[in-house]
Design goal:
Blueprint lengths: L2 H21 L3 H8 L4 H14 L7 H8 L3 H12 L3 H20 L3 H7 L5 H12 L3 H8 L10
Helix pairs in contact: 1-2, 3-4, 3-5, 4-5
Keywords: DNA-binding, Transcription, Transcription regulation
InterPro entries: Homeodomain-like_sf, HTH_AraC, HTH_AraC-typ_CS
Pfam families: HTH_18 (PF12833)
Amino acid sequence: MRAQEARWIAPLVVEEMLLRLLLGPCGPLIAQMGRTDSNTQRIERAIGWIRQHFDQPLNIEHLAELTHLGSSTFHARFKAVTGFSPLQFQKHLRLQEARRVMLTSGADVGGVSRQVGYASASQFTREYARMFGRAPRQDLAVARGAAPDLLLN
């Protein structure tokens, strides 16, 4: 194909790709994302707030107000968009951040658990083990190449 032909055909190819996306199985979700005040965009506001304040207690009423939805509607739509309840989403963010901090800085488990918003180190350890398959100290030992059994004492 010559450059002259490509200039005429390229916009048509892009248009065809967009139409195929919109007509495919994900089409309704993609179309909804493009709407100015769609449910997805409303939930994205809440996701942004949770990401910025993941270390703070979660207030569903505040998030519902932020998205201009009732509490139960907000909860249902949040789960439909993310696959998680708001609390599960926050917990996932907290644990991912805690793991990142521990692996990159070597900070202690208790300090990191408080830093990401946990009031109880034991609750943090339980939820960390549930998510990552190992207690935080064991996970750090494996990441650093030590035998996990060495840190059990």
